[in-house]
User: What shape does this take?
Amino acid sequence: MRNSAIIAPMIELLRTEPAAFITVATIFGLMFGSFLNVVIHRLPLMMEREWKAQCAELNAAEPAALPAYNLVVPRSACPACGHQITALENIPVISYLFLGGKCAGCKTHISPRYPLVEALTGALAGCIAWKFGFGLSAFAALFFVTCLVALTFIDFDTQLLPDDITLPLLWAGLLFNLVDGFTDPRSALIGAMAGYLALWSVYWLFKLVTGKDGMGYGDFKLLAAIGAWFGWTLLPAVILLSSVAGSVVGIALIVLAKHGRSVPIPFGPYLALGGIAALFWGPQLAQLYLGG
Assistant: This one.
């Protein structure tokens, strides 16, 4: 009874006071951004371990005995000196600034990307709270955005879009649109199928013409997930925005950063950018070419 007497007024406050909900959402976004840094770093390593174990099994070899390694174990530590990160050293953004961007143990520089991911997730969470208000749509949008942030940075690092994120994101979009989502269930289902087939077709056309792989299967699944969340009508806008952003960045990298033409550029981050645009400005984007 005591817990319910505390929780009910808090929920009512978040529901009726937009500023309170925006503040709380931003704080939780910062905290979840800290966890996303763990996911971004560890999930590809966990996948690599799994692949090696599967290869050993196929070769009838005994998999190497390795210590536990997942999103919880072991505790976060400095990769240079092994100093375990304390709670005070793990406060989003603030700890990085307080430590001067250096490890408390060995003073090795910490990548500024860690606070960037935290700040980006917090800012997106605050914007979602402002746009949707307290309710199911806001919490669904927060899940959607955090998945995209994780996929973006994993793709930048490894050129992988893990099924462990893309497939739950796809199914969550279909499920959400069965309730009271961003589009109707029929449009969501068609969007998932059309999103996958659109990039699948581009992939095979490019391969037939050039004999090379133009993108990975993870890109198909990510666009399918975006289609599942927002329906088929927004796919043209997402594809166009992603392609334009990818082309501009790709050209800039080649011209300014001497990025080799043969070095692949991940497409997932630009699909994620298109997905975020669909979340915040979906109806306006669709109106540009559908009218009405």
